[in-house]
Amino acid sequence: MSKMHAMVLQRPGASLQLQEQFLPAPAAGEVLLRVLACAVCRTDLHVMDGELPQARYPIVPGHEIVGVVEALGAQVAGLRLGQTVGLTWLGRSCGSCSFCLGKQENLCDEPEFTGCTRDGGFATHTLADAAFCLPLSDFQAEDPEHTAPLLCAGLIGWRALRAVGKETRVLGLYGFGAAAHLLAQVATAQGRSVYAFTRPGDADGQAFALSLGVAWAGGCDEMPPQRLDGAILFAPAGELVPQALGAVRKGGVVVCGGIHMSDIPSFPYRLLWEERRLSSVANLARRDGREFLRTADTLRLRARTTRYPLRDANLAVADLRQGRVMGAAVLIP
What we know:
Blueprint: E1 3-8, E2 17-22, E3 30-40, H1 42-48, E4 64-72, E5 84-87, E6 90-92, H2 98-101, E7 112-113, E8 125-129, E9 133-135, H3 138-141, H4 144-147, H5 153-164, E10 170-174, H6 178-189, E11 193-198, H7 203-211, E12 216-219, E13 228-233, H8 240-247, E14 248-256, E15 277-280, H9 286-299, E16 305-309, H10 313-321, E17 328-332
Parallel strand pairs: 10-11, 10-13, 11-12, 13-14, 14-15, 16-17
Antiparallel strand pairs: 1-2, 3-4, 3-8, 3-17, 4-5, 5-9, 6-7
């Protein structure tokens, strides 16, 4: 029987372990993907740190996956052997709860999440629900390394951008990592002015943001040179919520784009008053994926990446955790 390799997390707080496993056969409705690239997301850190209550262990993390269909289960339609597809965080939805029936599958009551409740892409192969594999353009399929970060960092940024609304012309991005560096390119292409907030004193990060066409870059402890129409928080730091509320204009909006955040401290009501709004985005719908990937293809959107072999997944995670990655870290099996 054929074998595969995977970086397995046995329990929260442990290091990933490289294991040889038997290659699984896809069940009905599933496909077996040979992983070409898998980006490392901050959500993977939350899985590894035990901060997501829905996670199961042991688990193979990774949910920003570009892979080739190597085997088809029964009753699979719309995919073919040899096709290159993308796989995201939402690995399956129930299809029958009120949210799924109401076109809000990202809020499904009984979801499965790639790299969290079902094994993901820190591996040479992974199983996927065929209905949740996203088609890629030729441009995207030909460059798996730079496409992989689009499948969560890009997608969550896209959903957050929709949440702040078209009327947000002056946009602040708090935390300038994988998601923000992609969203900054999209937002500037739409004619918005983007203000980038990095870790205090991160001159390299600010220079990187400016190289992507943002109007201003500074520390997340600074106030921007003008009021923002809206802000998106990618940094998982609750103390930035009142900071961002203080930076947006009357009627402005602050959107929290992460799946996990430290506790938000108490803050004076005047920061929320004057019809400022605070909201979050949760998970991703397939509709978001198809829409964003079409936009990314039109823009020829590219991620800045740092490549790691699969066996160095622990190094990639450590570099991301310590802020040593500009853009996105990507594992190449």
